[in-house]
Design a protein that fits this description.
By secondary structure, this protein is mainly beta.
């Protein structure tokens, strides 16, 4: 097809052509829904009928869409237009590595930095079971700010589904991709096993990586020859010329890394991209091109022969790296004064566990904590079933220890003696001794965001929901306010004690949808704060070694700070880049003694609105992945209301989730409920000292009017089908269920009022019954009780059997759906019937397992036909952040 400026592919309008390659043409386009420029790759119409090429094009989309990593091109969408398939991805500004290499060899330090990013990207792909199979300079992009992106997973092999290539010809005479049946890859970068037609795994990518790194360091292609046959022979039998050294001070260890990547046998190469990245990071230095480990590795090697045993190199390199790190850790931990170097290494989660998904940070970000003595790192990890556990890794050991009793625990923080951890779980603040024993509950904290523990035995923590900081004794008690609002503020967050143990830094939040706020120093002796830093985006600020550490976009910054005078000096400077973030929270932690820990990467895709059937099959998605919360579906199923960045947004489900902002107040607007006619919205808002009920026309016209305002907090949950009553929760805990008449005197009355928490009330379609959640048994269960405003009366009936949440009635009233608790979260269905004043619960069955994001409020709604379900789905599997990087004596690099 002819593509010109203005051509539309769904919601994307072409602006200009970018380029073309063997796998398709690329155009710059505008996404009219999100207001951003994107890149569109489409298969030329001449090839769209070619099944093999079409298969590879679609495989690129599937492979790339499964990946979420800062060093891999992000794929946003896939579709077809006039029979031509296309992929929508992020638009990059910069140049390919091939364009960069046209100018010749790169500086050693820059080559190593690019190589580390490439290795991390490949590692993320390999961990997903995806092999690139065509790593080459043309498929590596360097952005204008120096970030490396791996492109074109069109030749990727899904290792769990693709058969071997044993029958493929091993003597191609042209680049792969020009004809069906040739090898997959690009001549000069293909591993020997690929050329022989043997099964190739992820180590083939490491061979190609080695060829690319060789080219970056030498300016010459490792195996380029005059003909394809000669190139094949070189790859199979020859060794590239030695890397040029001259006056570039090329580290012998780096040459050995390249040689190991280019081993003819896969067994002789690095066995994972993560190991490769680790070896490269050990060479990296902030201070110049000469890596710190150069002197530790002998420079002698035979230039004329490399017929050495692979295991000799593997063992030698491993001994040097492990030995150097062990020595660095021991020297630091023993406080020997001769160590002035900053030592870096990585901490990986235990096998079978992954670092906690970033989307959980919506409520409880803070998976990293460095002990005050600098000897231990605590982190939150998640297993395949979705359960959390807090782990502690001592820096002088190789294994982390899981803390029994911290299941579903979040936001760990250390005691001053480094022997205990505070954390939040099940709406409580708890502490646990890391040497063993059960956790001890200190107070209610529903939910807690973060905490800090002083030598005086006082814990200061920040609750969710926009409030001041609280303090409580480390032995337990009733929390009291330790800060007070000073002007236009809606919350205080992320406290961190200074060395004196009485003062702490914290961030003020001007408004829920404003990511910028000032930093104050608070005191245990007064609720007044001292402003020490002007508005910044970073919500977490910590003190370490005479500096305040904070985030500027994704760069970790440090600025000199006098903790006695409470005064900043000098200018902030960068410490680490590409820090992983969630909204404005940075994933980093530091001890006063100079140990720094952080994660790099991105938070990955957000939750995805999708229509599912009763088997869990996705029938279609709605819009792009984005952080939605408090999902409410219109009665006709054509619109939905969600909370985004503190305001309500109206989604047109017929027009692929086209979003229109519905509220504009600075306060947090949540929990929308549609009227039965679909013409009004009732919602909760924290615009005054409490959370009140407001209503507004669903069209968006007019202004919000106060529906109910008391000294309590009211959360709307359900509107009866006849329009006469609105159910809402009244808190703080214990929460009760109340009803508000929508006509007459509009005097609220209690529906369920006990010592337990009753929440999430939902009217039955006939308005005679309500389904709700109560914790009267010690955990949340779904119950049904008659509504006091109806003719029904009597007791209550338990619906769920092993915990339940989010009850929803089927439109015909013959079934109640609910969600079972984690970690094995299922959508459950209970058949129900009512006759007179008698209610009967029948068979309870599991429909399918669900992935629910931790974004608050309602996660799903039942469509008008009862067969389709609108879900707010968490991304497939947990996000894949980089391992935790630990830096001992991080300020040492500042002296050079």
């Amino acid at each position: 097809m002819v593509v010109t400026q203005g051509t539309r592919f769904g919601p994307y309008q072409v602006i200009s052509a970018v380029g073309a390659g063997g796998m398709g043409e690329v155009y710059r386009a505008r996404d009219s829904r999100l207001g951003r420029d994107v890149a569109i790759k489409l298969l030329p119409s001449a090839f769209s009928a070619d099944p093999e090429r079409l298969k590879r094009f679609e495989q690129e989309a599937r492979a790339a869409a499964a990946l979420s990593h800062p060093n891999i091109l992000a794929v946003y969408d896939i579709g077809q237009h006039d029979g031509v398939p296309y992929i929508v991805s992020e638009l990059l500004e910069g140049e390919t590595l091939r364009e960069r290499l046209n100018a010749g060899a790169m500086p050693v330090r820059q080559a190593v930095e690019y190589a580390i990013q490439m290795a991390n990207g490949l590692g993320a792909a390999h961990e997903k079971g995806i092999i690139h199979r065509d790593v080459k300079p043309e498929n590596v992009f360097v952005t204008a700010d120096g970030r490396v992106k791996i492109l074109d997973f069109g030749l990727a092999k899904l290792t769990e589904t693709t058969a071997t290539l044993a029958g493929v010809s091993n003597l191609p005479t042209s680049p792969a991709g020009t004809q069906a049946g040739t090898l997959l890859g690009t001549m000069g970068y293909m591993a020997p096993e690929q050329l022989r037609g043997q099964a190739a795994d992820h180590r083939a990518d490491l061979f190609a990586f080695g060829a690319v790194l060789y080219e970056m360091l030498s300016g010459q292609r490792a195996f380029h020859r005059a003909t394809a046959v000669d190139t094949i022979t070189a790859i199979l039998t020859e060794i590239p010329p030695d890397l040029p050294n001259d006056d570039r001070r090329l580290p012998p260890a780096l040459s050995r890394i390249v040689e190991r990547c280019l081993e003819k046998s896969p067994a002789g190469r690095f066995q994972s991209a993560r190991d490769l990245a680790f070896a490269l990071e050990a060479l990296s230095s902030h201070t110049g091109p000469v890596p710190a480990l150069t002197a530790a590795i002998p420079e002698s090697r035979a230039a004329t022969t490399r017929e050495r045993l692979a295991w000799t190199l593997v063992a030698g390199l491993a001994i040097v790296l492990v030995g150097a790190l062990a020595v660095g850790a021991m020297v630091y931990l023993r406080r020997t004064p001769v160590s002035v170097e900053a030592t870096r290494f990585v901490v990986l989660p235990p096998e079978g566990w992954s670092l906690a998904a970033q989307l959980q940070a919506a409520v409880s970000a803070g998976p990293l904590a460095v002990s005050p003595d600098g000897r231990q790192v605590a982190f939150v990890a998640r297993n395949a079933s979705g359960g959390n556990l807090i782990w502690v890794r001592s820096l002088d050991t190789l294994a982390a220890k899981g803390l029994a009793g911290t299941e579903e625990g979040t936001s760990p923080f250390w005691s001053p003696d480094s022997r205990s951890l505070g954390f939040f779980a099940a709406g409580k603040l708890r502490r646990i001794d890391i040497s063993g024993g059960p956790p001890v509950t200190l107070c209610d904290a529903a939910p807690g965001i973060s905490g800090t523990w002083s030598p005086q035995g006082v814990i200061v923590f920040s609750p969710a929901g926009g409030t001041v900081l609280q303090k409580v004794s480390a032995s337990g008690g009733i929390p009291t306010a330790v800060t007070a609002f000073q002007g236009d503020e809606t919350g205080h967050a992320r406290p961190a004690f200074l060395p004196d143990g009485r003062h702490f830094v914290y961030r003020a939040i001007p408004r829920p949808d404003n990511p910028i706020g000032p930093v104050f120093v608070g005191s245990l002796d007064s609720t007044a704060g001292v402003r020490v830093m002007d508005d910044i985006v970073s919500t977490n600020v910590v003190y370490s070694q005479g500096h305040l550490l904070f985030l500027r976009e994704t760069t970790l910054m440090a600025q000199p700070f006098d903790p006695d005078r409470l005064v900043l000096s000098g200018e902030p400077f960068p410490v680490a880049e590409q820090i992983q973030t969630f909204v404005s929270y940075g994933f980093f932690a530091a001890s006063h003694s100079g140990v720094l820990a952080y994660q790099t990467g991105t938070a990955g895709p957000g939750p995805q609105l999708a229509w599912l059937d009763r088997t869990g099959t996705v029938l279609g998605t709605v819009g792009a992945p984005v952080l939605n919360a408090n999902l409410a579906l219109a009665p006709d199923g054509r619109q939905a209301m969600v909370t985004r960045l503190g305001d309500l947004w109206l989604l047109d489900l017929v027009r692929d989730g086209l979003a229109t902002r519905f509220t504009f107040d600075a306060a947090l607007d949540t929990n929308p409920v549609w009227s039965p006619a679909g013409d009004r919205i009732v919602f909760s808002s924290a615009r005054n000292s409490s959370v009140d009920l407001y209503q507004k026309a669903a069209s968006g016209a007019g202004v919000e009017e106060v529906l109910l305002a008391t000294t309590k907090d009211e959360i709307a949950t359900s509107w009866s089908a006849d329009g006469r009553y609105l159910l809402y929760n009244e808190g703080p805990p214990p929460n009760d269920i109340w009803a508000l008449p929508m006509s007459g005197d509009k005097k609220p009355f209690p529906v369920l009022q006990t010592q337990a928490n009753e929440t999430q009330g939902q009217f039955s379609p006939d308005g005679k019954w309500i389904a709700y959640v109560s914790n009267e048994s010690g955990r949340g269960e779904v119950y049904v009780a008659p509504f006091k405003g109806s003719s029904a009366s009597g007791g209550k009936w338990q619906v769920s059997t092993s915990g339940g949440n989010q009850p929803r009635w089927r439109p015909d009233g013959k079934e109640i759906l609910y969600v079972s608790p984690s970690p094995n979260t299922q959508l459950m269905a209970a058949t129900v019937s009512a006759e007179g004043e008698t209610f009967t619960v029948g068979v309870v069955t599991s429909l399918f397992r669900v992935r629910l994001p931790n974004t608050g409020g309602s996660f799903y709604q039942v469509g008008p036909d009862g067969n389709r379900l609108l879900f707010n789905l968490a991304p497939e599997g947990p996000a894949a952040p980089a391992p935790i990087t630990v830096v001992l004596n991080w300020t040492a690099a500042l002296k050079k």
